[in-house]
Specification:
Largest sheet of chain A: none
Strand content of chain A: under 5%
Shape of chain B: globular
Helix content of chain B: over 70%
Number of strands of chain B: 0
Largest sheet of chain B: none
Radius of gyration of chain A: 46 Å
Helix content of chain A: over 70%
Largest interface: A-B, 25 and 40 residues
Number of helices of chain A: 2
Shape of chain A: rod-shaped
Oligomer: heterodimer
Strand content of chain B: under 5%
Structural class of chain A: mainly alpha
Order of helices and strands of chain B: HHHHHHHH
Number of strands of chain A: 0
Chain lengths: 113, 167
């Protein structure tokens, strides 16, 4: 056997595989399971947070739409009241003008054609 | 999970041993082994075959060992304890092996890892180069330099043992 081979044999013997401590495999499997469980919990939390966000956004959109509709209705009511008021004022003015030139009021009786 | 458990059973000794020889610390070797297998679990869908898994584990374990040695910034000087078999070597041989391990533990991170891959796992230079992602010539020159350094150290520390073994 040459010196080189002897030296390499010595290195192989010195650096041969060392047995891991008992229980290492089980600890690693437990760590993997724990990480998987943590990840699943994290995903559930994310899913719950996203669902809540979607729900909140939907409620906000619905509330905003309802408020807009109510505002439009209120605006329409105010416009209608304004139009009625103008019409009443015009009719009253016309009535006064007609009265001033002697036109009698026309009375419609019910039942006339 | 079944595939992972199988890979763990088959290769945890290889990864632990590599980390132990590189770091010289049982607790650190256990932590590193756990980290490497957790990383494997994360990349399990990328593993194409058992051979690929072994190469992947060696590459990751070797590189993480190098990173850990550099992060700690230390060179282990203690002789690493390795339980010898009941009908194992003589006392003299056991001492020599412990000295060799201590000398290996003082080598720079990459040179140390190259020696471990070569003599623990019996890997070819090309395989080591692939695992460490360096040119084969780099592996060859570092291995050559490390072996010369070890030979000189052994001669300096234990000339009688050197003579006895014709190293």
């Amino acid at each position: 056997m040459t010196g080189q081979n002897d030296f390499e044999d010595l290195l192989k013997a010195s650096l041969r595989r060392v047995e891991p401590p008992p229980g290492l495999q089980a600890r690693i499997l437990a760590a993997v399971r724990s990480r998987r469980a943590r990840r699943r919990t994290a995903w559930l939390c994310i899913a719950a947070a996203v669902s809540l966000a979607v729900l909140a956004a939907s409620l906000a959109v619905a509330w905003r739409r309802e408020r807009l509709r109510a505002e439009q209705a209120e605006q329409a009511r105010r416009q209608f009241e304004f139009a009625i008021r103008i019409t009443c004022e015009r009719l009253a003015r016309l009535d006064r003008q007609l009265a001033s030139i002697g036109v009698r009021r026309i009375h419609f009786e019910e039942g006339l054609p | 999970m079944l595939l992972f458990a199988e890979l763990l059973r088959e290769h945890h000794s290889m990864v632990y041993s590599l980390a132990y020889h590189a770091l010289g610390d049982r607790a650190a070797a256990e932590d590193l082994t756990q980290e490497v297998f957790l990383a494997l679990y994360e990349h399990l869908d990328e593993i194409e075959s058992p051979a690929h898994a072994k190469a992947w584990l060696l590459r990751v374990a070797a590189n993480r060992s190098i990173d850990e040695i550099r992060r700690r910034g230390y060179r282990r000087s203690l002789s690493l304890e390795v339980a010898e078999p009941a009908h194992g070597p003589s006392q003299e041989e056991t001492v020599l092996r412990a000295q060799v391990r201590a000398m290996v533990a003082r080598l720079p991170a990459r040179a140390r890892t190259i020696l471990i891959l070569r003599y623990q796992e019996g890997m070819e230079l090309a395989e080591i180069a692939q695992a460490l992602e360096v040119p084969v010539q780099t592996v060859k020159s570092r291995l050559h330099r490390s072996l010369n350094l070890l030979r000189q150290s052994i001669f300096r520390r234990a000339p009688d043992l050197r003579a006895a073994r014709r190293i």
